[in-house]
Amino acid sequence: MCTEKKCFGLTGMPVSQSKSPALFRAAYQGRYEYGLFPAATADEAMRLFREHGLQGMNVTMPLKEPVLPFMATLDESAALLQAVNTVVWQQGALQGYNTDVQGVAGALAEAGIAVNGRRCVVLGAGGAGRAAACALAQAGAILTIANRSAGRAGAAAKLFHAAALPLAEALQRSAEYEVIVNTLPAATGVAAQLRLEPQQAVLDADYAHKPLLALCRNAGATYIDGSRWLLHQAIPAYRLFTGEEPDVAAMTQALFIL
User: Fold this and answer.
1) Are 31 and 8 in contact, with CB atoms under 8 Å apart?
2) Among residues 63, 56, 64, which one has the least CA distance to residue 24?
3) What backbone phi and psi angles, to 5 degrees, belong to 73?
4) DSSP state, 53?
5) Is 70's pLDDT higher than 70?
6) Which residues lie closer than 8 Å to 138 by C-beta, 6 or more apart?
7) Superfamily of domain 7-99+233-257
8) Which residues contact 124 (CB under 8 A, 6 or more apart)?
9) How sure is the predictor about 237, in pLDDT bands with cuts at 50, 70 and 90?
10) Active-site residue among 19, 64, 158, 210?
11) Which listed CATH number (3.40.50.970, 3.40.50.720, 3.30.110.40, 3.90.550.10) goes with 102-228?
């Protein structure tokens, strides 16, 4: 139980390799507690939230969609994407937010990647994939969403006036895209099927395993580590948690040395 300090945390499965605790400690110089609460189901995650007296929780895969029914309210992004990555206890109820759109936009901007009028593809149509699609669409990209389930890709594409493709076809046509955002886990085997050119840029959401890093290096393509997405989604999430400004410089430094 959190008793002396306000306490926050991260839930999902797996979370053991997460950089979030170090980021949070840097953001507030240890004035609040932040723990890891591995959970395979939304029921388990919400039970841990209550048992540990948390004031807020970050949510990662595979729980961004399953936690939706537990939220009393959703912000605009969470409602549109039907995915939550930030839960805050406010006025006696759980409030759901999604800051992943800001995470994607911030990571691309930091890397100097402009997407307006450029051909972009998002691999994956889950919560992270829809957030990436939203960020790209808002920035004026010519967008395609690819997923193993064509129906899921099509449903996401309708939200953002994008094209939809089966994943296998998008991978075969990967050289057509100027920017690729991969939200699929390493186990999907995307790296073995993707073909890259030096002029392409890739944002890889899985910062723990970096499934496309070696491929990008071999091709001479620009690689954007998913830890930059993590940083830029964490900044607004931590503001929501505490109502305070996090120390972004300290967070950046902590991320650099991890």
Assistant:
1) no
2) 56
3) -140, 160
4) T
5) yes
6) 101, 105
7) Leucine Dehydrogenase, chain A, domain 1 (3.40.50.10860)
8) 132, 146, 147, 182, 183, 184, 205
9) very high
10) 64
11) 3.40.50.720
202, 135, 105, 98 alpha-carbon torsion, rounded to 10°: -120
The 10s digit of each residue's pLDDT in 180-220 is: 999 998 888 999 999 999 999 999 999 989 999 999 999 99
Give, as one character, the DSSP assignment of residue 188. Answer: G
5 part of the active site: no
Q: Of 250, 252, 195, give the one whose Cα is nearest residue 225.
A: 252
**In the chain, what are the domain boundaries?**
7-99+233-257, 102-228
- 225: number of Cβ within 10 Å: 19
Evaluate whether 202 touches 224 at the Cβ level (below 8 Å). yes
Is residue 80 within 8 Å of residue 139, measured between CB atoms?
A: no
Token pair for 153: 């890709």
CB 198: neighbour CB atoms within 10 A?
9
